[in-house]
Amino acid sequence: MTGLKLLKALMVITVVVALILPLIMHPPKYPEVRRVNNQQQIGLGFRIYEGDGYPLAVSHTNGGSTELNKGSNAFRTFQVVSN
Fold it and tell me: What letter would DSSP give residue 16?
């Protein structure tokens, strides 16, 4: 009777190790999920930003940022919508 309980315990431990071992050896690829989520949030932010009357295609002299998107001043477009 004790040998049977020991065998059952070893079987349970073996199953648990078999289920956990792949997760330890190859963790889930959460960075890709976070990256896609961040890209979606940035896209949504730009759509809201553009819909608020400050479109990215309007000239800088009229309150837009078309000229700033070229060259080394491209960061100015993102500076307005950043935290």
Answer: H
